[in-house]
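== Polypeptide entry ==
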Amino acid sequence: MTALRSALYNFVFYFSTLIYMIVLLPFFSIGKRINAWWVPRFWARSNMWFLKIICGTKHEVSGFENMPEGGYILAPKHQSAWDTFAFVPWWPDPVYILKRELKWIPLFGWFLVRMKMIGIDRGSRETAVKSINKGATEAIKDGRQIVIYPEGTRRPPGAKPAYKAGIYHLYENLKVPVVPIAHVAGLFWPRRKFLRYPGTIKVEILKPIPPGLSRAEFMDALISSTEGACDRLLLEVYEGPNPPPFPPVAQARIDELKKNAV
């Protein structure tokens, strides 16, 4: 039954995305850019609704009081395709840092260009850094929220932290708070798999890390707060009713946490 529901949801997700891009493009293209956010927000909310109705996968978000005013950096845990779109409705005017090739995709890429997302050339570190700094500086001046995944790529739940230095350079350059975001969405929407498991994806918006910390202080604060919250959420799901199947790396982390608690 899980496989059947997952297959149905995946079809609905991609088909509805195509339809939305075609039908809503005229509405998205006219008027002020900030007003065009209703289109991707509607798309994100509808796909989360489909996920709930078809697969029984819900979500709960806490910690909205930790969001500062104006421009700042958002640092979500990256485990799943879910966390690439589920956050869109929650921020006033987010800007994602992504590979520039995504902007070349017909229809989808047009949406990214319209919302002034920051595209980078991953083949050239120097060019990528310049693009990020320029785009991020302009975004912060406009009071936008910059979304960057500190580990760069999707990591399975329970995996050892692999945080990159890029987020510190951005933090140091922009001198704004960084808001970590913890979740274990990868348990319910696993990476590189089509299965979608029922349950509740809990998301925690953590307290912002203030500007001005050294690299060691910043990275320690980011990793400890994010990973500590993720470990707690991992245990909550494991000990809760009807948990989804835990991949080996997540089960190993659970065993380690339970052993350390003794």
User: Anything to note?
Assistant: The chain has a mean pLDDT of 91.
